[in-house]
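Dear colleagues,

As part of the handover before I leave the project, I'm documenting each prediction I ran so the next person doesn't have to rerun anything. This entry is a single chain, and its sequence is reproduced below.
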Amino acid sequence: MPPSQLHALMAHELGHHLIVGMRGAMTTTILLVLPVVLLELPMIATNWVAVRLKRRAPGSRAGKAAPALVMCVSDLALFAVLAWLFGTMPAALVLAVMQLAPLLRAIHQRHGEFAADRLAVDLGFGLGLRDLLRDRFPDWQPDTDPYTAMFMTHPTNRRRIRRIETRLRVLERRCRP
């Protein structure tokens, strides 16, 4: 790896720490990640059961339908328990948040990647970062369908390169006399 790309990679990683900082990382973990993980535990257990069922009949219709069926049954069971304990409105809210939690976490993480890229560019490592993404990881995350792209934790390299080049142009215009 050329030194310019290595320096750019280090600047990007440093950007994650400089932007968020230790106190910000702890706050983010406590306020965002921990509740999301707790809400995702039933989904993780459900997925585990669904995978086990699918493995028992991999080619059959039952094997293909098992994950969706298990998810529906578990969501209904969870809703019934929460509705009995807290009422229907809080139960519906918890289920909605459970469904949105992975999407919100992915959006938050993609924003962090863009922010770290921007800091690396602002520190003068934009060309190296662009070249690193273009040369070292050209097909790392190809553009996928919009639904799958919503849940990606990192933006596609094409989007990152486009933003890096836009930022480089902005900084270049600022430096002109």
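The first helix runs from residue 3 to 56. Residues 3-175 form one domain.

All the best with the project,
I.
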